Amino acid sequence: MNQNHSIAKLQKDFIAKKLSSTELTKDYFKKIKASKTNAYLALCEERALKQAKTADEIIARDGERSFEKQPLLGIPLGIKDVLTMDGVVTTCGSKMLENYVPPFTATAVIRLENAGAVSLGKLNMDEFAMGSSNENSAFGPVIHPTHPDRVPGGSSGGSATSVGADLCVASLGTDTGGSIRLPASFTGIVGLKPTYGRISRYGLIAFASSLDQIGPMTKNVDDAARLLQVMSGADEMDATCAPNSVGNYLGKLKDKWSWSGVRIGIPKEYFVDGMQMEVEASVRESLKKLESLGAKLVDISLPHSKYAVATYYLVSASEASSNLARFDGVRYGVRPQSAVEAPDPMSFYKRVRANFGPEVKRRILLGTFALASGYYDAYYKRACQVRRLMKNDFDEAFKSVDLIASAVGPTTAFKFGEKSSNPLQAYLMDILTIPASLAGLPGISVPCGVDAEKLPIGIQFLAPHFEEERLLQAAHSFETEVYHAI
Amino acid sequence: MLKVDQAWVKKIADLARLDLSDEEMKKFTNQFEEMMKYVDAISDAKVDGVEPMIHPYEMELLLRDDVPDAPFVDSEGKPKVLQSAPETLYEGYKVPPIL
Fold it and tell me: How far is A367 from chain B (nearest CA, A)?
């Protein structure tokens, strides 16, 4: 990974005239076109080069001061294809939307662009963000940045590979049950899922509205803080975007963080059966190092974790079945000729919706079932009750600890096809990331080691709602004082 | 325990407006049998009196004033929402006749 391509370093180079944003942007397009990773689905060359040129002009005129007003000025980013951009095809990794050109731009993207960022293009993903390996994209799988026989994780697989292979400085992903954190862990980068409501979901094509959250995927924690800083805060276009004040995420990283007295909860339920030994060993070793720096490791229990995957799949599939009902071939999306010739509305819808891939169909079916009359109480409603119990577990735990730590995924990146024949096995990859999603908590994945095949391992830190400052400070300290010090 | 068979999957698929091929029907039925066993695990959770949580936390929903924004229009003043419509007629969506 090209650590020189951190935001702070690049902006220094812009000022020193060692590099211009235009040169950097052109270089990225060259690399993207030569790459065999299938990370990008669409490029916005005209838009990006215009943004880069403007950035160069501002930097030439205002120097260092330009970054005060526009902290991401001249920085090329990749955007997951679940986020709308005015005039740019947005497919969600689905045949259903292969020709969809949204009329508006997602708030998160607007804020990045207003901060001076350059949008390189749209990143491949599992169809409608449903998957853990990026093998569910209608436009082909994404290849792992360093191990071509492996998946990059999902659903933000393109976002992970593009950062891991340095096909952008940083990217946006979205996380519903682990879709930022798992691919970040698989590809050895940093992935932050903020608190639910921290970043506006306006322009994020919904999978599960009570879980979906946008977040940065970056080469280091400092970059993650920079992106979060720009994107956070209330938005009148999203009623569920929280009015809570935005922290000083970047500024706080400069404060000296001491692990002395920091209580880290280690949930006993999170060292699960079937966990790869090297993953467990690497996480435990990292925790020991934090202990040697003064942290206090506290054994905790999150007793309802055993229901996490079942609860998540019922809740998220239910919301998905409702959200994806909008794809009816009337206002947007693909309307095949067979649908035009349909004898009745029922056949019309069915022929349009044949464009969904198998994983999307499976989840729509599961959700339709869980919401159906006669099953609602035993499945959807019960899952929502268990969800509260899981959140209560976290509330209780955070009374006695400051952070919670665990592995991100039970294994490192697996091979193509290894889990795709058995959906349940694939779902279990999210077992360590799902509980925080259900509770709406912020979580971050930071590299902590590699296995025997040099595949990256990630450690996950979780914090209470809206405690991103603490989460980023801890992750930054871990990254610089523990991981890079190994 | 719920009995998962092809008739059950067909019924749910109809509700979801999905047409499944014979092959999909067979595959999904098998996969659902396994998945239902797994999700049925929540039936032993003690949830009596627990308020269902439909959102991650109780939050105040911010509503904006009900004032229309400028419409999304292209350079010719045509509504941009129509640019991805499968078929349009004048300034509206066109659908096949259904009667």
Answer: 9
Token output for A18: 């060692």
Provide the residue range defining the domain that includes B30: 6-43
Say whether pLDDT at A81 is over 90. yes
**Is residue B21 domain-resident?**
yes
Domains defined for chain A, CATH in brackets: 3-254 (3.90.1300.10), 263-305+386-475 (no CATH), 310-378 (no CATH)
CA distance B4 to chain A (A): 11
pLDDT, one tens digit per residue, over A194-230 is 999 999 999 999 999 999 999 999 999 999 999 999 9
Determine whether the interchain pair B64/A438 forms a contact, defined as Cβ–Cβ distance below 8 Å.
no
Pairing of strands B88-89, A443-450: unpaired
Comparing CB atoms, the residue among A331, A369, A465 nearest residue B12 is A369
A440 CB near a chain B CB, below 8 Å? yes
Reported confidence tier of residue A273, pLDDT bands at 50, 70, 90: confident
* Domains of chain B: total: 1
Is A80 labeled as catalytic in the residue annotation? yes
In a domain, B59, yes or no: no
Beta strand A296-300 with A263-267 is parallel
β-bridge mates for residue A213, sequence order: A175
Is A288 an annotated catalytic residue?
A: no
d(CA A261, CA A240): 35
Determine if residue B90 is left, alpha or beta; phi over 0 gives left, psi from -120 to 50 gives alpha, anything else beta. left
- Does the beta-carbon distance from A384 to B52 stay under 8 Å? yes
Residue type, A243: P
pLDDT of residue A1 exceeding 60: no
Dump pLDDT digits (tens) for A137-194.
999 999 999 999 999 999 999 999 999 999 999 999 999 999 999 999 999 999 999 9
Which candidate in A80, A95, A122, A391 is catalytic? A80
B61 to chain A: nearest residue by CA?
A239
User: For residues A233 and A433, what is the distance between their CA atoms, to the nearest angstrom?
Assistant: 24
The mean per-residue pLDDT over the stretch A273-295 comes to 95
Among A482, A407, A404, CA closest to A442: A404
What CATH number is given to the structural domain containing B21? Answer: 1.10.20
pLDDT at A274: 82
Tell me which DSSP letter residue A133 carries. Answer: S
Domain-located, residue B48: no
Q: Does the residue B85 lie in any domain?
A: no
